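Course assignment 3, question 2. Fill in each field.
Student: A.L.
Task: Predict the tertiary structure for the chain below.
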Amino acid sequence: MDGRGPTRLLLVGAGHAHLEILRRLILEPLRDVELTLVSLGPLHHYSGMVPGYLQETYQEDEIAVRVTDLVARARGRFFAGRAVGLRPGHQAVHVQTSPEEIVEIPYDLVSFAVGSNTAGVDAPEVAGEAQRIKPLERVTALHARLRMLGEVGGTVPAVVVGGGAAGVEVALAMAAALEKAGAAHRITLVEAGEEILSGYSNRFRRRARSILHQRGIVARTSVRVVAVHSDAAEIQDGTRIPSRLTVWLTGAVSWPLFRDSGLPLDDRGFLLIDDSLRSVDDPRIFAVGDCGTLASHPETPKAGVYAVREGPVLWQSLKATMAGGEPPRYVPQEGFLSILNTGDGRALLDYKGIISHSRWAWRLKDRIDRRFMRRYQECVEPEKP
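Answer field:
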């Protein structure tokens, strides 16, 4: 960027948009770029296929991309660890590589695609017993736990905390997994708000409630879980809902890594970014997906479909910044196709007022998800001689 050496490009996190940056770097290598990617583990698990994995429609290798191979083909360096701090004045990110060690990684340009944490999951009353999914590397532990509970048999009481799209899909996937194993279940979906699937239409919510009821899942709203025990989830009035597995899937909050950066954040701790996906206060710092909030569109939902759309914009914005040119602008789409896996060979689709619970909706979702994964999995296959 300044003519004194290669541009040190640091990608923090292996989210959707960063997979696209790696793909582009493989197809269109950039001169004088020194790439480093930081991620917790070698695999990226695709959130859209997680419910299918839990119910064993997919194997793990079908829902995962080997990020280490992508980085190698992009001629970069993979660094295992969790980003815990950002120091813009020193152009460095602090990365925890073990409980005892934190290292500092310098950058000229840095982009964050670290997603979001789950609200309330770190509270002492919750953290010890609640099953997490974020970061998505944890989904394999939930899969193993479901398989173990199914093998034990009998009736399995379980609770899913959070009535958003992820909570509804995971509750239905858990039901499917236990049924497939021959076990009965008593699953309760608990939502602190007045409705499940906030942000969806009333028609869609009613259809979802009907599906949950048909599958034997009880949806309770205006109920807040205050503690999780090994055998129950405790709600605000002291009542305990029996549960041998409590999965915590509440709303999105930021990881603490931006907290002491001195950069402008929104009220949940997410980095405020401009229309070119850069920090509003520092054009060397980018954020995509859940971890960034557009200053011009702060109401944009924290959903993966936006991160996917941001990938090509981030690529052009990074290239423009390196070249000293004008970066592109990202405008979030007003709506998007939503398809929820209902765990029964069907899916619940919502698009521009069209609602369908059908097998063709599932086939559409499966085709879209598999096509998305091929885009990145095929990048890591050995080149043919």
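Instructor remarks: The chain has two domains: 7-40+81-116+254-336, 120-250. The two ends are 36 Å apart (CA to CA).
Grade: pending
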